[in-house]
Design brief:
The complex is a heterodimer of chains A (114) and B (113).
Chain A lengths: L4 E3 L2 E4 L5 E6 L6 E7 L6 E7 L2 E5 L6 E5 L5 E5 L8 E8 L9 E2 L3 E5 L1
Parallel strand pairs in A: 2-11
Antiparallel strand pairs in A: 1-3, 3-8, 4-5, 4-9, 5-6, 7-8, 9-10, 9-11
Chain B lengths: L3 E3 L4 E4 L4 E7 L4 E9 L5 E7 L4 E3 L2 E6 L4 E6 L8 E10 L8 E2 L3 E6 L1
Parallel strand pairs in B: 2-11
Antiparallel strand pairs in B: 1-3, 3-8, 4-5, 4-9, 6-7, 7-8, 9-10, 9-11
The chains are: A mainly beta (114), B mainly beta (113).
């Protein structure tokens, strides 16, 4: 079975541009979460979607937005990119949104903003 | 104060050594606790959940002290393959979606021959 897949794997953008990152959850998983991991730090929660509804939002500016599609895949959009947005963006899926559903992470998208 | 605090290390230990990592969390209402492992330039992977009664998985033992808001991970008989970053992870208060996990900074472990 395929795990969580993310695309692209690497991306280079310039300041002010916009970026869209994509995530396909494990088949049957209805919950998708997005995390940002800056070098040397642990992942930071950005969004969670369950059954196409936003269930949680971390402390990120409105430049960050996301959505979940009927097939449970998800996109993360970041507008007006800043140098500080350079990070590894991780998508994780779980079967449900309850605390007994382990998170499975994808390989991540490494975004570099120049 | 950070929600989850870990000593970033690095911990450099010889093969066969026993090493312990500690972690503290600030939200006393936190419900679930985990240790994740992250290899260099890879995604985090669940190592083990942490229960109040303590739990063991092979060479790994996790402990939770709710009164002190403290989590620990003990690795016995370290292997070269244990070299990684170990992330202490907390699921916040009841009613918060599971997908919203709070990660510590991570503790870097290097096991050398």
């Amino acid at each position: 079975d395929a795990g969580v897949t993310q695309s692209p794997t690497h991306l280079i953008k310039t300041r002010g541009q916009q970026v869209t990152l994509r995530c396909s959850p494990i088949s049957g998983h209805k919950s998708v979460s997005w995390y940002q991991q800056v070098l040397g730090q642990g992942p930071q929660f950005i969004f969670q979607y369950y059954e196409k509804e936003e269930r949680g939002r971390g402390n990120f500016p409105d430049r960050f937005s996301a959505r979940q599609f009927p097939n449970y895949s998800s996109e993360l959009n970041v507008n007006a990119l800043l140098l500080g947005d350079s990070a590894l963006y991780l998508c994780a899926s779980s079967l449900a949104s309850g605390h007994n559903s382990p998170l499975h992470f994808g390989n991540g998208t490494r975004l570099t903003v120049t | 104060r950070k929600e989850v605090e870990q000593d970033p290390g690095p911990f450099n230990v010889p093969e066969g050594a026993t090493v312990a990592f500690n972690c503290t969390y600030s939200n006393s209402a936190s419900q679930s606790f985990f240790w994740y492992r992250q290899d260099c330039r890879k995604e985090p992977k669940l190592l083990m959940s942490v229960y109040s009664s303590g739990n063991e998985d092979g060479r790994f033992t996790a402990q939770l002290n709710r009164a002190s808001q403290y989590i620990s991970l003990l690795i016995r008989d370290s292997k070269l393959s244990d070299s990684a970053t170990y992330l202490c992870v907390v699921n916040p208060a009841r009613g918060t979606s599971y997908g919203k996990l709070t990660f510590g900074q991570g503790t870097i472990l290097t096991v050398h021959p």
